[in-house]
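Thread: "does anyone have the structure for this chain?"

Original post by V.I.:
We have the sequence but no experimental structure in hand. Need at least a predicted one for the grant figures.
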Amino acid sequence: MPDLVPGRTRPHVLEAAGALSSAAAVTAAVVLGARLWRGAPYSVGYSLHAVTNAAVIVCLAATVALAWSGARIRPAAARTAAAYVLTAALPTLAYGIPLARTPLYYGGLHLDQQFRTQYLLRLTESPALSDMNYAGLPPYYPAGWFWPAGRIADITGIPAWQFMKPWSLLTFAVAATVALYLWRRIQPTVALPLTTVTVLAVLFTSHQEPYSGALAILAPPMAVIAWHALRTGRRGALATTAIALGITVATYTLYAAVAILTLIVMAAVARTTRRSAVKRLAAVAGGAALIGLVVWLPYLIAWLRSPASAAGAAQEYLPTAGAAAWLSQFEATPLGVTTAVGTVWLLLRLRTDRGAQALGITVGVAYLWTFLSMLAAAAGTTLLGFRVIPILYATLGAAATLAAAELVRRHSLPRYAIAAGALLIAVALAQQGTWQLRSDGAKAYTDVACDGRRADGRPAGAQAYLPRVDAAIREMTRTAPRDTVVLPTDFTLLSCFGYRGFTSYIAQYANPLAGETRRKQLVEEWSRARTPAQLTAALDASPARPPTVFVFETSGTRTLRLDVTRDTFPADPNTGWSHLDFARSAFAGPGFEARRVGPYTVVARTGQENR
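Reply from O.Q.:
Generated one for you, tokens below.
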């Protein structure tokens, strides 16, 4: 694989601007066009699934035709523009069409998507960095993806819970076009196939978490650029690597850690002096730190002031995928064949091809990370090794594409046969990927949205009353949701309307500075109060800002039920549920006001200012 292709700055800048414009235009067209769908929802039958596959096949056929035609399409600018449009269209069609009749994104408002929606809403309210849930704390989860989303949602006036879908689709489209831009700087003759296959590979695993999916798509070209930077010390490559690492640090901590380990390994095995390797690593680290600190500085300052309180459970999750080495190469599936071909090519070309070296180191570090994660289970924690699977798929997919390109160069195969074979393989990969969307796509239709309705038209149940609960809280407290701490039985209330939470829904996403374990203990203590005086004294003694509103499930004449979660790691699932019964007598005083709203009972403290 040749070194980076030199070129003039201005055409590259114009091309980058065109790439991003293509991503935005395609995303807007798909989101708006999908709203015309009047057929059955995605969760009912397979109509939208069939339309998705048909649209993806057309997109892939056009992509293969463009790659097959090559330089015969004139002018070159039209060929380049078509490549960017098709690249942006592939993930947007695959992810966007199934969501045609729902305002929610994959996973709905369920589990992890609750906290993501809550974070996006928090940064829609204000540009100031703030924890998604707790009052008065800086954010622990990186805001690099959520902050621009919140700013755009605020400017456009789109509710955060609705903006999650278009912003996620745009993220994948932008990542695909940026990947194509990078591959065109590295390996221009096969840039389009390389990008297409990496996008298809990521399609399998990253639909719920668009920021990690975007970084996985960019991982293979950035690995080649980083390897080039550490070997040669070229300023442009070093700067690009530093910017990419900085964005990763500001976006996804786990991938930042994997990237840093990858760079260290690259510097250790690069054929250069130790002094040069250290200087180049330091240059990359320094530039990345400047970008990452924009997001991390408030948390680091708070941690330095109170390091003893920073204990979290972010790494305490071990599903089936994290308990074994991920060897898709031995699966009899299109993805299995693709990763197997990529693995064989990397092993054969590791000593002679610089691209294979870069991709091989990336794959090796990813497997090392998964192995260390499995070992960490003995110490009662993990490194979330299963999260690096998208990087493995994308990198091995890129390697398989380079293997196919080398095969074509070495053998004089008919062009039509090459095109037909490429199309069949791409369609097989895409259709295997779209099946992975079924379960999470259905949740986007069956979960109750923040307007109290389900996209499939079926009755919403108890959550249909949440907008009325919100109205009741506003009327009772006369304070903005961002200034109101609520202890709810249904955390969807926080994701939809922006209230602060006293506890976290999932312990793994709790801010380590919050002392989540102690907060849960306090809630249990409050549930034992029997008089308003006892409860008021206990609330006022809380070291953290206590809730001024409780939202209970109306369970009986003497008690009010609060559903609470608990961390059950190392069990899978790692979050369990239990009930706490509060005595109605604890709220039967002048310091509290209670209202019945459907199946919920809302209790607010009166005459209290939020502290």
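V.I.: this helps a lot. The first strand starts at residue 485 and ends at 488.
O.Q.: and Confidence is low (pLDDT under 50) at residues 2-9.
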